[in-house]
Write a structure and sequence with these properties.
By secondary structure, this protein is an alpha+beta fold. The chain has three domains: about 1-85, no CATH class; about 90-145, bsu07140 like domains (CRO Repressor, 2-Layer Sandwich), CATH 3.30.240.20; about 165-235, bsu07140 like domains (CRO Repressor, 2-Layer Sandwich), CATH 3.30.240.20. Helices cover about 45% and strands about 15% of the residues. The chain is built from nine helices and nine strands. The protein has helices spanning about 1-20, 25-30, 30-50, 55-80, 80-90, 100-105, 110-120, 180-185, 190-195; strands at about 90-95, 100, 130-135, 140-145, 170, 175, 205-210, 215-220, 230. Helix 3 packs antiparallel against helix 4. It starts with a helix and ends in a 6-residue tail after the last strand.
Protein backbone atom coordinates (compact mmCIF):
# COMPACT_ATOMS: atom_id res chain seq x y z
CA UNK A 1 0.00 0.00 0.00
CA UNK A 2 2.86 2.35 0.82
CA UNK A 3 4.33 1.81 -2.63
CA UNK A 4 1.00 2.65 -4.30
CA UNK A 5 0.68 5.79 -2.19
CA UNK A 6 4.19 6.94 -3.09
CA UNK A 7 3.61 6.32 -6.81
CA UNK A 8 0.38 8.32 -6.70
CA UNK A 9 2.05 11.21 -4.87
CA UNK A 10 4.97 11.31 -7.32
CA UNK A 11 2.73 11.22 -10.40
CA UNK A 12 0.37 13.80 -8.92
CA UNK A 13 3.13 16.24 -8.05
CA UNK A 14 4.83 15.75 -11.41
CA UNK A 15 1.56 16.29 -13.29
CA UNK A 16 0.80 19.47 -11.31
CA UNK A 17 4.33 20.71 -11.99
CA UNK A 18 3.91 19.99 -15.69
CA UNK A 19 0.64 21.92 -15.88
CA UNK A 20 2.13 24.84 -13.97
CA UNK A 21 5.14 25.01 -16.28
CA UNK A 22 2.80 25.12 -19.26
CA UNK A 23 1.39 28.42 -18.01
CA UNK A 24 -1.63 29.69 -16.06
CA UNK A 25 -3.68 29.78 -19.24
CA UNK A 26 -3.96 26.01 -18.97
CA UNK A 27 -6.41 26.38 -16.09
CA UNK A 28 -9.24 28.40 -17.64
CA UNK A 29 -8.34 29.35 -21.20
CA UNK A 30 -7.39 26.15 -22.96
CA UNK A 31 -6.58 26.30 -26.63
CA UNK A 32 -7.46 23.16 -28.64
CA UNK A 33 -3.94 21.73 -28.64
CA UNK A 34 -3.57 22.50 -24.93
CA UNK A 35 -6.80 20.69 -24.11
CA UNK A 36 -5.59 17.60 -25.98
CA UNK A 37 -2.30 17.78 -24.12
CA UNK A 38 -4.02 18.09 -20.73
CA UNK A 39 -6.16 15.04 -21.47
CA UNK A 40 -3.09 13.06 -22.54
CA UNK A 41 -1.24 13.97 -19.34
CA UNK A 42 -4.18 12.72 -17.30
CA UNK A 43 -4.34 9.46 -19.26
CA UNK A 44 -0.61 8.81 -19.06
CA UNK A 45 -0.50 9.50 -15.33
CA UNK A 46 -3.43 7.16 -14.71
CA UNK A 47 -1.75 4.09 -16.17
CA UNK A 48 1.12 3.73 -13.64
CA UNK A 49 -1.34 4.45 -10.83
CA UNK A 50 -3.65 1.62 -11.83
CA UNK A 51 -1.04 -0.97 -12.84
CA UNK A 52 1.71 -1.68 -10.32
CA UNK A 53 3.57 -3.64 -12.97
CA UNK A 54 4.11 -0.48 -15.04
CA UNK A 55 7.43 1.20 -14.22
CA UNK A 56 7.05 4.69 -12.81
CA UNK A 57 9.30 6.09 -15.53
CA UNK A 58 6.73 4.95 -18.13
CA UNK A 59 4.52 7.71 -16.74
CA UNK A 60 7.11 10.38 -16.00
CA UNK A 61 9.01 10.24 -19.31
CA UNK A 62 5.94 10.65 -21.59
CA UNK A 63 4.71 13.58 -19.47
CA UNK A 64 8.14 15.15 -19.78
CA UNK A 65 7.98 14.60 -23.53
CA UNK A 66 4.58 16.30 -23.69
CA UNK A 67 6.00 19.26 -21.79
CA UNK A 68 8.74 19.61 -24.40
CA UNK A 69 6.23 19.25 -27.23
CA UNK A 70 4.01 21.91 -25.65
CA UNK A 71 6.99 24.26 -25.39
CA UNK A 72 7.81 23.75 -29.06
CA UNK A 73 4.22 24.30 -30.18
CA UNK A 74 3.90 27.42 -28.05
CA UNK A 75 7.15 28.87 -29.37
CA UNK A 76 6.14 28.20 -32.98
CA UNK A 77 2.67 29.66 -32.49
CA UNK A 78 4.11 32.83 -30.97
CA UNK A 79 6.65 33.26 -33.77
CA UNK A 80 4.60 32.31 -36.84
CA UNK A 81 1.02 33.33 -37.50
CA UNK A 82 0.20 30.38 -39.83
CA UNK A 83 1.23 27.92 -37.09
CA UNK A 84 -0.81 29.83 -34.51
CA UNK A 85 -3.88 29.72 -36.74
CA UNK A 86 -3.33 26.03 -37.40
CA UNK A 87 -3.07 25.16 -33.70
CA UNK A 88 -5.52 27.65 -32.21
CA UNK A 89 -7.91 28.43 -35.05
CA UNK A 90 -9.40 31.88 -35.56
CA UNK A 91 -11.93 33.86 -33.54
CA UNK A 92 -15.31 34.21 -35.25
CA UNK A 93 -17.73 37.13 -35.21
CA UNK A 94 -21.12 35.67 -34.29
CA UNK A 95 -22.93 39.00 -33.90
CA UNK A 96 -22.06 41.71 -36.39
CA UNK A 97 -23.67 45.17 -36.32
CA UNK A 98 -26.40 43.88 -34.03
CA UNK A 99 -27.28 40.84 -36.14
CA UNK A 100 -26.26 37.21 -35.76
CA UNK A 101 -23.93 35.86 -38.41
CA UNK A 102 -25.67 32.51 -38.85
CA UNK A 103 -23.22 31.35 -41.52
CA UNK A 104 -20.27 31.84 -39.17
CA UNK A 105 -22.17 30.18 -36.34
CA UNK A 106 -22.84 27.11 -38.48
CA UNK A 107 -19.17 26.88 -39.45
CA UNK A 108 -18.16 26.94 -35.79
CA UNK A 109 -20.92 24.57 -34.65
CA UNK A 110 -22.36 27.31 -32.44
CA UNK A 111 -26.12 27.28 -31.84
CA UNK A 112 -28.52 30.06 -30.90
CA UNK A 113 -28.96 28.46 -27.47
CA UNK A 114 -25.18 28.48 -26.96
CA UNK A 115 -25.05 32.17 -27.86
CA UNK A 116 -27.92 33.16 -25.58
CA UNK A 117 -26.47 31.16 -22.68
CA UNK A 118 -23.10 32.90 -23.00
CA UNK A 119 -24.70 36.34 -23.29
CA UNK A 120 -26.71 35.75 -20.14
CA UNK A 121 -23.53 34.71 -18.37
CA UNK A 122 -21.93 37.99 -19.42
CA UNK A 123 -24.86 39.98 -18.08
CA UNK A 124 -26.64 40.62 -21.39
CA UNK A 125 -29.96 38.76 -21.33
CA UNK A 126 -31.28 40.86 -24.24
CA UNK A 127 -29.52 40.15 -27.52
CA UNK A 128 -30.82 43.41 -29.00
CA UNK A 129 -28.39 45.30 -26.73
CA UNK A 130 -25.34 43.70 -28.39
CA UNK A 131 -23.52 45.35 -31.28
CA UNK A 132 -20.70 42.81 -31.69
CA UNK A 133 -19.94 39.41 -30.21
CA UNK A 134 -16.84 37.37 -30.93
CA UNK A 135 -16.33 33.68 -30.17
CA UNK A 136 -12.69 33.45 -29.13
CA UNK A 137 -10.38 30.57 -29.98
CA UNK A 138 -10.57 29.28 -26.39
CA UNK A 139 -14.36 28.99 -26.62
CA UNK A 140 -15.19 32.09 -24.61
CA UNK A 141 -17.56 34.76 -25.90
CA UNK A 142 -16.62 38.44 -25.92
CA UNK A 143 -19.63 40.76 -26.20
CA UNK A 144 -19.70 44.50 -26.86
CA UNK A 145 -22.96 46.38 -26.26
CA UNK A 146 -24.34 49.15 -28.42
CA UNK A 147 -23.31 52.68 -27.54
CA UNK A 148 -26.64 53.55 -25.93
CA UNK A 149 -26.18 50.69 -23.44
CA UNK A 150 -22.58 51.49 -22.52
CA UNK A 151 -21.50 53.16 -19.33
CA UNK A 152 -24.84 52.94 -17.55
CA UNK A 153 -24.29 52.86 -13.80
CA UNK A 154 -26.78 51.93 -11.11
CA UNK A 155 -26.74 55.46 -9.74
CA UNK A 156 -27.76 56.75 -13.17
CA UNK A 157 -30.98 54.77 -13.10
CA UNK A 158 -34.06 56.12 -11.35
CA UNK A 159 -35.02 54.18 -8.28
CA UNK A 160 -38.61 53.93 -9.45
CA UNK A 161 -37.70 52.75 -12.96
CA UNK A 162 -39.53 49.52 -13.89
CA UNK A 163 -37.57 46.30 -14.22
CA UNK A 164 -36.99 45.19 -17.78
CA UNK A 165 -37.43 41.52 -17.00
CA UNK A 166 -35.90 38.58 -18.82
CA UNK A 167 -36.39 38.53 -22.62
CA UNK A 168 -38.46 35.61 -23.87
CA UNK A 169 -37.25 33.52 -26.79
CA UNK A 170 -40.35 33.02 -28.92
CA UNK A 171 -38.77 31.33 -31.94
CA UNK A 172 -35.45 29.48 -32.03
CA UNK A 173 -34.18 27.93 -35.27
CA UNK A 174 -37.67 27.94 -36.77
CA UNK A 175 -39.33 26.33 -33.74
CA UNK A 176 -41.95 28.22 -31.74
CA UNK A 177 -41.23 28.13 -28.02
CA UNK A 178 -44.81 27.57 -26.82
CA UNK A 179 -44.03 27.91 -23.12
CA UNK A 180 -42.28 31.25 -23.54
CA UNK A 181 -45.04 32.51 -25.83
CA UNK A 182 -47.67 31.68 -23.23
CA UNK A 183 -45.64 33.46 -20.55
CA UNK A 184 -45.84 36.67 -22.57
CA UNK A 185 -49.64 36.44 -22.66
CA UNK A 186 -49.77 36.11 -26.45
CA UNK A 187 -50.80 33.38 -28.86
CA UNK A 188 -49.68 31.97 -32.21
CA UNK A 189 -51.81 34.45 -34.16
CA UNK A 190 -50.11 37.39 -32.45
CA UNK A 191 -46.69 35.91 -33.08
CA UNK A 192 -47.48 35.35 -36.75
CA UNK A 193 -48.58 38.98 -37.07
CA UNK A 194 -45.37 40.26 -35.47
CA UNK A 195 -43.22 38.08 -37.71
CA UNK A 196 -45.07 39.29 -40.80
CA UNK A 197 -44.42 42.89 -39.72
CA UNK A 198 -40.73 41.97 -39.71
CA UNK A 199 -41.06 40.52 -43.22
CA UNK A 200 -41.04 36.86 -42.20
CA UNK A 201 -44.09 34.99 -43.47
CA UNK A 202 -42.98 31.54 -42.34
CA UNK A 203 -41.88 30.63 -38.84
CA UNK A 204 -39.46 28.03 -40.19
CA UNK A 205 -37.49 30.85 -41.85
CA UNK A 206 -36.83 32.59 -38.53
CA UNK A 207 -33.52 31.98 -36.77
CA UNK A 208 -34.46 33.90 -33.65
CA UNK A 209 -37.40 35.97 -32.42
CA UNK A 210 -37.42 37.36 -28.90
CA UNK A 211 -39.53 39.76 -26.87
CA UNK A 212 -37.83 41.80 -24.18
CA UNK A 213 -39.33 43.16 -20.98
CA UNK A 214 -40.08 46.49 -22.65
CA UNK A 215 -42.24 44.82 -25.27
CA UNK A 216 -39.77 45.22 -28.13
CA UNK A 217 -39.31 42.46 -30.68
CA UNK A 218 -36.06 41.19 -32.14
CA UNK A 219 -36.44 39.12 -35.29
CA UNK A 220 -33.78 37.61 -37.51
CA UNK A 221 -34.50 35.42 -40.48
CA UNK A 222 -32.32 33.00 -42.40
CA UNK A 223 -32.04 35.09 -45.55
CA UNK A 224 -28.67 36.82 -45.84
CA UNK A 225 -30.10 39.77 -47.79
CA UNK A 226 -32.51 40.69 -45.00
CA UNK A 227 -31.17 42.35 -41.85
CA UNK A 228 -32.44 41.60 -38.38
CA UNK A 229 -35.45 43.65 -37.30
CA UNK A 230 -35.98 45.55 -34.07
CA UNK A 231 -39.47 46.85 -33.42
CA UNK A 232 -39.37 50.61 -32.94
CA UNK A 233 -42.45 50.68 -30.75
CA UNK A 234 -43.70 48.65 -27.85
CA UNK A 235 -45.94 45.78 -28.91
CA UNK A 236 -49.10 45.20 -27.00
Amino acid sequence: MLTVFIRVVVLYLFSVLAMRLMGKRQVGQLQPYELVLALMVAEIAASPMENMGTPLLYGLVPILGLMVLHGVCTALSVKWLPVRRLLNGRPGVVIRQGCMDTVQMQKMGYTVEDLMEELRGLGYPDISEIETAILETNGRLSAFPKTIYEGVQKQDVLNDAPEKGMPRLLVVDGQVQKEHLMETGHDDAWLKTQLEKAGEKRTCDVVLASLNGEGRMYVQGKRKDRPCIFSAEREG
